[in-house]
From TrEMBL:
This is Bifunctional protein FolD. Its EC number is 1.5.1.5, 3.5.4.9. Belongs to the tetrahydrofolate dehydrogenase/cyclohydrolase family. It comes from Holdemanella porci. It catalyses: (6R)-5,10-methenyltetrahydrofolate + H2O = (6R)-10-formyltetrahydrofolate + H(+); (6R)-5,10-methylene-5,6,7,8-tetrahydrofolate + NADP(+) = (6R)-5,10-methenyltetrahydrofolate + NADPH. NADP(+) binds at G165, R166, S167, I231.
Length: 284
């Protein structure tokens, strides 16, 4: 059994991006800029944004955080998003979720210019993914696919993939990405009967259920590749949706939590922003 360390892979990808940004700086051109909109004082959101700020800084990418009061109106939030859409210096826009309950998250996401939607959550980008056209792909699913690439799982013809979870953020998009690689894909969720039996037939098992250590060796086919997207805190310790020690008995490859998918998610956000920059520069 081998461990797929997302943090190591992310470091390699970020080193390559840093070199590209160093080259841009040497040419005297403007640098890529990611703008993050943070509403309120949710500790988890603040921590996530701080991580994105640090990641941008590590590769020389410009980053700007717009902090808004938790009582901000929908109109005020919309105005901020529209101003970023119109700002030619801004390449990527990310509205940190969740928003306070009085704000409409869907309306905010739909207002982002699809060409600056580096989170890949705008309906236009979702539609591009569905129809296998170029567009921004959500960061976590994109990170999962990069992890599969790193172990040689590129053409998945003849492979059966099972995705545990059906969220718009992970489950659905990663299922489409696997299908675009020619895998035969099944999505299972909390209402699926015999979920363990179905999962145990997978050559590639992607787990994004949001239930700590739910998946054990009984869910895993001998020699399967298991990617654990879950992140849960149990007794002060971060754990995934898989019982790592149990799953490792049968998997050929497995990703850990932490140091697995999480670092890849942030890395793909930077990658999308750099792609947006090049698209905007070419269009100027």
């Amino acid at each position: 059994m081998e461990i797929i360390y997302g943090n190591t892979l992310a470091d390699r990808i970020k080193a390559d991006m840093k070199q590209k940004i160093d080259d841009i700086r040497a040419e005297g051109a403007r640098l890529p800029l990611l703008s993050v909109v943070l509403v309120g004082n949710d500790p988890a959101s603040i921590s996530y944004v701080r991580g994105k700020e640090k990641a941008c800084s590590s590769i020389g990418m410009l980053q700007r955080t717009i902090r808004l009061d938790e009582n901000v109106s929908q109109k005020e939030l919309n105005d901020v998003i529209m101003s970023l859409n119109l700002d030619s210096e801004v390449d990527g826009i990310l509205v940190q979720m969740p928003l306070p309950s009085h704000l409409d998250e869907t309306a905010a996401l739909e207002l982002i210019d699809p060409q600056k939607d580096v989170d890949g959550l705008h309906p236009m980008n979702a539609g591009c993914l569905l129809t296998n056209r170029p567009g921004f792909i959500p960061c976590t699913p994109q990170g999962v696919m990069a992890m599969l690439d790193s172990i040689g799982c590129k053409d998945l013809s003849g492979k059966r993939a099972v995705v545990c979870g059906r969220s718009n953020l992970v489950g659905k998009p990663v299922a489409l990405l696997l299908q675009n690689r020619n895998a035969t894909v099944t999505i299972v969720h909390s209402k699926t009967p015999d979920i363990e039996k179905i999962a145990s037939q997978a050559d590639i098992l992607i787990v994004a259920m949001g239930v700590a250590q739910m998946v054990n060796e009984n869910w895993v086919k001998e020699g399967a590749v298991v990617i654990d997207v879950g992140i849960n805190r149990v007794n002060g310790k971060l754990v995934g949706d898989c019982d790592f020690e149990s799953v490792a008995k049968k998997a050929s490859y497995v990703s850990p939590v932490p140091k697995g998918v999480g670092p890849m998610t942030v890395c793909m956000l930077l990658s999308n922003t750099l792609d947006a920059y090049h698209m905007h520069v070419q269009g100027e």
